[in-house]
Amino acid sequence: MNLQKNKWLVPLAFTNIYVIWGITFLAISFGLKGFPPFILSGFRFLAAGILILGFLLAKGSNARSLNNWKKNAITGILILTGGTGLVAWGEQYVTASEAAIAIATGPFWFIAIDKANWKFYFADKFIPIGLVIGFTGLIFFLKGSVHSGSADATSGMTRVTAFIVLGLSSISWVLGSLYSKKNPASHTTIMNIAQQLIAAGLASLLIALFRNEWQQFSFTAAPASAWIGLSFLIIFGSVVAYLSYIWLLSVRPAALVSTHTYINPIVAVIAGWIITREVINGHQLFGLFIILAGVLLTNVTKYFKLSKRSKVKIRRTVRVWLHTVNVSRLLQLQKEKRNYSSSIRK
């Protein structure tokens, strides 16, 4: 595909993974009201894969290559079963916003694991600077995103375990993405996605069997909201957004594509505020602006040609901002220390 003639495809694909996957975290929470996590994931992936494969077979496409099925199965199980299925499990114990934030370490895992492209990543100083700024924003975001209500319903250790599992899901997603990029199947992108979804769906349903999820599940007991959540996950989360993601991996560096993990928490919080009336506090808003600044820096040199003078100005601005944040943090620590000393004397 000629990107020069279809420049709109890249921003459209980025918009899909930024917005749709942000809403997906909320859709998962709705789906979990009627479906256990791996049954939810299995139905989601298998239905989407069968829909796409059926469409392609009707058009005369061939899906008989066992080697391609093998490659796509590995990719699908790592990215979807491990990367997304574990998110569904984690959202049983943390909110949709917290889950989105917990897996936002994706860009750092991409850089840490993708050793072959270290020279590229660190040649452009704006990429690591942007990632660091984005991670700083996530710290502020996380500070304002721990809801006491969820903590009351779930024990502290269970929540900690959930966050660890969500971190592992991020690593699984990265491994699958890098494998897909380095070991592409020879089918068309759409056929590859269909096979990945089917393999991931079958693997998820198999895990559900071993976890005895079928014993606690009933189709008739699932509320309408759960079915709406599942429908959104199938059509938008597993077809539209996943298609955009896999295509972007073939035309853009993996670490840049992974910046969706910075935007997804923003969309998840906003969607939660609009749909379920969750409150956005000051720490979250401050974190959002910092995250956006980090994402902008990681992409700025890819979409805009900057002069050396502009790059120097941006670096100076970043240094001033980092210094301001450090000073503010130091003053806050000193204030907390004084307050603690005063309370002891009293």
Protein architecture, described:
There is one protein chain. α1 packs across α14, α8 runs antiparallel to α15 and α11 crosses α12. It contains 16 helices and no strands. It is an all-alpha fold and 346 residues long. The chain has 2 domains: 297 residues, no CATH class; 38 residues.
Summarize the structure.
This protein is mainly α and 346 residues long. 78% of the residues lie in helices and 0% in strands. α2 (37-58) packs antiparallel against α11, α6 crosses α10 and α11 (189-210) packs across α12 (224-251).
Largest sheet: none
Count of separate DSSP helical elements: 16
Give the structural class: mainly alpha
Count of discrete domains: 2
Low-confidence stretches: 147-152
DSSP, total strands: 0
Taken in chain order, the helices and strands follow as HHHHHHHHHHHHHHHH
Distance between the termini: 72 Å
The value of Rg in angstroms is: 21 Å
Globally, the shape reads globular
Residue-averaged pLDDT: 81
Q: What helical percentage do the residues reach? A: over 70%
| Share in β-strands | under 5%
